[in-house]
Structure formats: structure tokens, C-alpha cells
Amino acid sequence: xxxxxxxxxxGKVVLITGGSRGIGEMIARGFVENGAKVYLTARKxxxxxxxxxxxxxxxxxxxxxxxxxxxxxxxxxxxxLERRESRLDVLINNAGVGWVADVAEFPEVGWDKVMDLNxxxxxxxxxxxxxxxxxxxxxxxxxxxxxxxxxxxxxxSHLEHYPYSASKAGVLHLTRALAKFLAKRHIAVNAxxxxxxxxxxxxxxxxxxxxxxxxxxxxxxxxxxEDMAGAALYLAxxxxxxxxxxxxxxxxxxxxxx
Length: 258
Description:
Layout: H1 3-7, E1 13-17, H2 22-32, E2 37-41, H3 45-55, E3 60-63, H4 71-84, E4 90-93, H5 108-128, H6 130-136, E5 143-148, H7 162-182, E6 187-194, H8 207-215, H9 225-236, E7 247-250
Parallel strand pairs: 1-2, 1-4, 2-3, 4-5, 5-6, 6-7
Helix pairs in contact: 2-9, 4-5, 5-7
């Protein structure tokens, strides 16, 4: 089998949540530039629409802004996609948020905000889009759900972002549970656990933290956009057709060797 047949995503229909920046943008570029039809969704419509316009220079990319931390917005997004497509080959649950505070002062609002977006939305958006995913899956080539976790779901972070770590560990185990029960629907579910990548979310970290994280990484660097895009393309392609319930750490060995 040729490389394009194994790793190609041309013609696939893809939805990426949190797709307007950071890891979502890295993944979106990889899919658009390799011939997939990509729908981006994010809470902030201007950013979502601006990136869709930019990526449309390289392929097909459509903005469908939505706040997937809200159940009514999940329902609306599902309806919007159903009006446009008869199937969904790949759902990438990437939207996420963090909140750092001292344990003695951590607010309930911070806990709820993180859990609603990072865990609850992953389950209920997948649930909402089951019919479109089922329509794409076949015996030989399942539809794919790719959940974006974090290495902070694999180890204990230096940061006091309690619900973030808990939520990402939850995403990884939710991935395994969904994989077990959605396989009968011809849907494979896997997760990526990214390490440190340059993004708006990591731009506020102190230089000392960045330097220490690089020192603790066997490959002695942070991730590049193509590292994240490559992992997602693999999990969406025929090359991973016998992979289900897996967690792929893309971290240069940061969490996986500590």
C-alpha cells in the first residue's frame, strides 16, 4: 500500500473544536494542507472566521463558531453541521481551558469552567455527532474521534491547576471508555497527550519554567506545529486503522520518561 493510501486524509470531513489558535490551529493547518474539508469551531467568532479565511487559501476550511462548554451550543453546532454534511469522518475534541490558583483559594467557578469545557463537552459533543460519525465509518475504515488530553493527565504538574490536571486525566480515561463502546458503531476513539508547545496558553509561563521543562525533556525542545499535525493525521488516517483506545504522548519524552 502506498504512503498516500496509508496516511492520506484527502476528502475527509473534519471538525476541530478550539480550532482558532494553539494546538487546534496546528492540527487544522495539517488537515487543510493535505486535502481534508475542515470545519473550525471556537467560542470567539472573529478569530475562528479569520483563521478559516486564511486557511482557505490552501484548501477547504469553514468556520462554525460555538461555545461547546454549553449544551445548547453543542445542540446548535450539531444541527449546523448536519445541514451541511451527511457524514463526519473525524471529530477532534481539542477545546480546553486552564485555571491556576493556590489550593486554599481555588474558586468553584474556576473548577466548573475547566470541567465543563475540558471533559463534559468532549462527551456530549461526541454524543451529539454520533449519527454523522456512524455514517462515515465502515468495517475496514472506522470514523475517528481524537481527544486532546495533556501530559498533565499522565503526571503531576509543577503548576497548581488542579481541575486542569484532573480533567485531562479524565479525558484520557473517557477516551478508553468511549473506544470500548463505540467500536460496535464503527467509530475508533484515541487521544493525544501533548507536552509543551508554543501557544497563547503557554505564552504567560515564566522563562524559568520554560527552561526547566526543556531541561526535563529528553529531546531538549518544545514541540513544533508539524509534530502535533503529524500525530493527528496519523490517528485520522488508514495507517491507524487498528488503533483504538490509545493515548499517544507527543511530548519529546517529558512525561513518559519521568
